[in-house]
Amino acid sequence: MKIEIRNGRVIDPRHGLDRNTTLYIAAGKVAALDDAPAGWHANRVLDAAGLVVCPGLIDVSARLREPGFEYKATLDSEMAAAIGGGVTSLACPPDTDPPLDEPGLVQMLKHRARSLNGAHVYPIGALTVGLKGETITEMGELTEAGCIAFSHADAALADTQVLFRALQYAATFGYRVWLRAQDASLARGGVAHDGEVATRLGLPAIPAFAETIALDTIFELVRATGVRVHLARLSSHEGVARVRAAKKAGLPVTCDVAIHHVHLCDVDIGWFNAHCHLVPPLRGTRDRAALRAGLADGTIDLICSDHTPVDDDAKQLPFAEAEPGATGLELLLPLTLKWAREEALPLSAALARVTAEPARVLGLESGHLGPGADADVCVFAPDAHWRVEPSALRSQGKNTPFIGFELPGKVRYTLVGGRVVHES
Amino acid sequence: MRNPQLNADGQLQHLLTLEGLPPEVIGRILDTAVPFVSIAERDGKEVPLLRGKTVFNLFFENSTRTRTTFEIAAKRLSADVINLNIGVSSTTKGETLLDTIDNLVAMNADMFIVRHGQSGAPHLIAQHLSAANRSHIHVVNAGDGRHGHPTQGLLDLFTIRHYKRDFHGLTVAIVGDVLHSRVARSLIHGLTTLGTAEVRVIGPQTLLPTAVESLGVRVLHDMREGLVGCDVVVMLRLQNERMKGSLLPSAGEFFKHYGLTVDKLKLAKPDAIVMHPGPMNRGVEIDSAVADGRHSVILPQVTFGIAVRMAVMSILAGN
Amino acid sequence: MTDVSLPDAEITLGRLADKLRGAAAFDAKLVGIHSGGAWLAERLAQMLPGEHPLGSIDVSFYRDDYAQKGLRAKLATTTLPFEVEGSHIILVDDVLYTGRSVRAAINEIFDYGRPQSIELAVLIDRGGRELPIEAKYVGARLAVARDLSIALQRRPDGSLELSLEPAGSAAGA
Prior knowledge:
The complex is a heterotrimer. Chain A is α/β, with parallel strands linked by helices. Chain A has 2 domains: 3-53 and 374-393 and 408-423, Roll (Urease, subunit C, domain 1); 56-362, Metal-dependent hydrolases (TIM Barrel). Helix content of chain A is 30%, strand content 24%. Chain A has helices spanning 75-84, 103-115, 139-145, 160-173, 184-187, 196-201, 209-225, 237-248, 259-263, 285-297, 312-315, 332-342, 347-352, 356-362, and strands spanning 3-12, 17-26, 29-33, 44-47, 52-55, 57-59, 87-92, 120-126, 149-151, 176-180, 192-193, 205-206, 228-232, 253-258, 302-304, 377-387, 406-416, 419-423. By secondary structure, chain B is of the alpha/beta class. Chain B has 2 domains: 23-148 and 303-318, Rossmann fold; 150-298, Aspartate/ornithine carbamoyltransferase (Rossmann fold, 3-Layer(aba) Sandwich), CATH 3.40.50.1370. Chain B is built from 11 helices and 9 strands. Chain B has helices at 23-39, 64-76, 97-106, 121-131, 150-164, 182-193, 223-227, 251-258, 262-265, 288-291, 298-318; strands at 54-59, 80-85, 111-116, 138-144, 171-175, 198-202, 218-220, 232-235, 273-275. In chain B, helix 5 (150-164) packs across helix 6 and helix 5 packs across helix 11. Chain C has a single domain (9-143), classed as Rossmann fold. Chain C has helices spanning 9-23, 36-47, 66-69, 100-110, and strands at residues 29-33, 54-57, 88-96, 117-125, 137-141, 148-154, 160-166.
């Protein structure tokens, strides 16, 4: 199908492109930019005047809740949320039920996802069997089934020797490993950042050094094994400083931050708002400032949503008992735009953090609009504001600290593989 | 963000925490408690203020003491009192906290006295009632996790005011496990709000919360140093589970450094008063000689506790 | 603000004392309803012959308008420093109007014990009763518009004066 996206502001961060022009799509790929290819006859023309045309967003962490947690959300609802939010590729963590430690489960998930004709789904496989932290998984088989990396999600991997062996194994075959930097014993029982707010509210706390001690361990193991590690969900200013130093010293590490931590800090917990119960916890204002600085100077490579739909019953509990996590697929773009405005960042630089950079870290060819690229495109109105209400969200997870907020950025069209999968 | 305890007219609708309460609101509760103290001394100890009202004691954490004082206070106001001991976890019965509340609301509850093991549970309940347009139902926090125990804080303030009159020139020391103490947090908020000259917290590093100075207190690890010149010494209870393990090596070692003895008390002012929220662990945080001695006002605290709770309930029920 | 038609409080008090002097029991307890009644009871104790133990009552916990108005901000403590059981009590109030304060005071006294008798002495009776309550001893009778309330004040030198205020500014009786 030949689609012409006419007169939009085309932003392609990877190629440094930002100008008003027309994009031509054919046979599922980007056919041309600016001038129509020879003999062009469009099947459909999308009028993008006043809109931004950019690569479809790539969200490196979105929990789809299948298999196992279908009462919280299903692939159908979360896929609708993804494309509604302009997300055309997403990676999902292995903490499903059962965890993604068997090739059969991965294949089934990929098959299910493909049949929905929505965003591309890239499963991240479990690093250890059952995420128990004891035996490493069959990483070769899992890679063949479609895993693009391996991680331990939020499960504790307390045995450093097991972690070391797992990293060694992964390094042997060039597999990427995604790790959360949180020392399990120091974080045990904690639900909030160890600081003034947790003291006042009487919440069990997780000190920042739970992150830095884990980072130090991971860096040593990276040095020892040469494995490519991606650090998931940085939270503290000390952590950002550690990563900056490690990158400077040439370690092959990348890292990300969840969009919520770019905007919120522990003060936002207010009177025990369980929507602010997140993992890692929201830390202090200084930490938030450091995360923003890290995004600005490239220490932090990308932003993800860490999409985690939680049912209402599991959130309507006292703070420490409430299930952690926030819904985010539909808020990734608006919250990225909000951040860009607050920091007076060029739109291209901001969008890079959710398109080109995630593609690079995941090892994908997509995330750009160069000729021949997969036509995964997001067309949005950057100045159209909308109110975050449960009824406005397509995800089954209505759990977000941004309920009631007016955010910028309404997605008008989402294209995956050259097909319009969402329009509004 | 409006204080969820106050209604749109600035009147107290719930008592969830002493933090952020204007000093006039605290002062009024203490003033209202004064006549209730004398009523306790006459034969007919009831007044009809809460007649026809149903007060539910919702205790998710066991506490016979606190529950009993609330029950006595409610009955002296002529209320009907129902005690519900939900035990450690309501979810073991399959019913969530808010489901339990909804069921009781349907039984025409007027007031909930809530004790829960998790910080923030009374706030959740208050918010839920407000969202369900049931703002005429009042919530009193009888202790939530480590967050707050506002009625205890108030009775401690009442006790101090009774013996010392004015807070402005006072030095108050709070000694012991501040980290896990909701009593300490509430008292600190109350003391700072009423303009206490100096509030000291004394304890080992393992038992003091991070950034506790931000609450407006001075931290000391040496008890002798911390007791010098004190007008009021508040000893906190050390819970059994803290006495061994990684926070403290033993009760004996704790008593040596942080137990209140006659000898250490001499460092405080000659007319200093000694308080304890109870129940006491004699020989762990406090010596019997001190607990039973002339500085101790621990028993009057209990009497004042009933009067203060009567004051809280009558002010709330009238709003 | 003073109204020309209000009687002088001191003169009226004198008249009230005269009425009590002849009739009141020699050992009657004088219990004043806070705050005006309490001032009056103090003065009467000096003006009447015999020993008259003094008490004062704050009726805040017994009022019938608690559900509408809540607890009043200023509370005083009820003090009845004598055995109520079997005693003769003269309840003293400044202004008798609806009768509700007196009803509350009687209920409160009974929570302390069972008196032998209670008689009511008031400085001013302004009519407008809403309950079947009458005073045995009255200083003066007045008719006053519903939107006004009569208040008793005590000057720094201890002397008393009456004034008119808009209704609702102080507790109406």
